[in-house]
Predict the structure.
Amino acid sequence: MDNVTLLGLGIMGSAMARNILKAGFPLTVYNRTRAKAEELAAQGARVAVSPRQAAQGADVVISMVGDDAASQAIWLGEEGALAGAPPQAVLVECSTLSPAWVRELAQRAAARGLALLDAPVLGSKDAAEAADLKILVGGDAAALERARPVLEAISREIHHMGPGGSGAVMKLVNNLIVAVQATGLAEGLTLAERAGLNMEQVASLITSSSPGSPFVKAVVPRMLARDRSQTHFALRWMRKDLTYALRLADDLGVPMPTVAIAREMYRMAGNLGLDTADLARVVDVLRQS
Amino acid sequence: MDNVTLLGLGIMGSAMARNILKAGFPLTVYNRTRAKAEELAAQGARVAVSPRQAAQGADVVISMVGDDAASQAIWLGEEGALAGAPPQAVLVECSTLSPAWVRELAQRAAARGLALLDAPVLGSKDAAEAADLKILVGGDAAALERARPVLEAISREIHHMGPGGSGAVMKLVNNLIVAVQATGLAEGLTLAERAGLNMEQVASLITSSSPGSPFVKAVVPRMLARDRSQTHFALRWMRKDLTYALRLADDLGVPMPTVAIAREMYRMAGNLGLDTADLARVVDVLRQS
């Protein structure tokens, strides 16, 4: 079976690594903080000391990190994965990144004779653990076929969106629509609460009527809950996704008025100390104390 | 059976009138332009020449018109329905109006010994025709019980939200959440299109993933369609609903940044001549020509 490398062992990366091991692939992992890698070593993974070492001998190299800067740190430089990957390897960037950066990364990979797929995923922690992700792939179809057996170990659906960058664009489009659903919902719930409505009744009606998306159904209880200890999706990642979406829109001349305002709301929430809190906490910028 | 009066025979009012007739209630109708009333006369309704005449002898008087001004014209003045309604009548305002106006109307009704329910509906044309509406009721519970048999003839669910104005607030909250889902979606679809993605693939992913609310599923094809002849929900009504929601938020001191921006987008679309077009056409303010 293909030798697989996984770079970045956050909540998502760790869950993907476990499913790759379960499917029987020999797996090498690297993480900036080594403690998370040791947990996977106990389950059979080899632990590398650098992205470069991790990529050596790999058939498929997957990255799952937080943002463009983290991706650059993983792939570039003397100890980066591009320097270690053998010529036949397929590189799979699963992080949610700016299309501009993933296209540049694909060019840098191509200069070394390596194929890179941008392959961000839909679905968060639970879906990653259940190998129930949807993967949105941009890049060469032949490279996708080579990586497919590994991607099938972590996902339920693989969607080839088109040339390099298409996966990254699709992920940002999905997330900006979700992010704006969250701010509109936060405003509606706050108005209802201040107007004195019974919030259980409001929650039941909103989630069962025309605005009741899977996201809305999941987030309404988190927006209204008094217990706010759980982080399903950190607010700072949504702010980052909106920033990348707005940069792309700027490049393409697309006006995005509600996305722009929503991004400022996530920024304000972050400035209130909520960057690592659940994105539902964006509602806090609307509160009166 | 109770004598029922229905004031306002637009798309929604006409469908409700037909279901009230089907349920066997004696029905009197009034509409500003008489032609629409004549269609219902052919189905057994009595046609009145004024709201006042229509309300005479009624047990339940329902209004279904476009905005506060139209509601005021129906209820107030010498020829208005308040002047005609007998003391035992229950007045049911099903239009989507500002909570400030429905509370004033309830006070004016009470001054004449009449009970008024604010009772806007969730669901548009198809739901109205199928008697599948959800009714959101604010006002006195005893008055609701008196009106219930008639409301059951037009709806699937009746939700008593609380005191007078609660139904109006709930309807605005629902619609503002939907309105912002539409502008965020319009921005996402426009970005995807300009970035060169396959829009059938994008539509399929968005509607089947976390942002896929019943509203999103229904409106995506209308936003992408080349044939734009059908109006499911006129853009000007959404702009009006957002205006009422923003006035309420202003009264209560609730910030609604994304709603405020969305309202401006519907206003811009209206100024482009799209006021009577489907609300999906809000996407047109993002287009390049």
The longest strand of chain B covers residues 155-162.
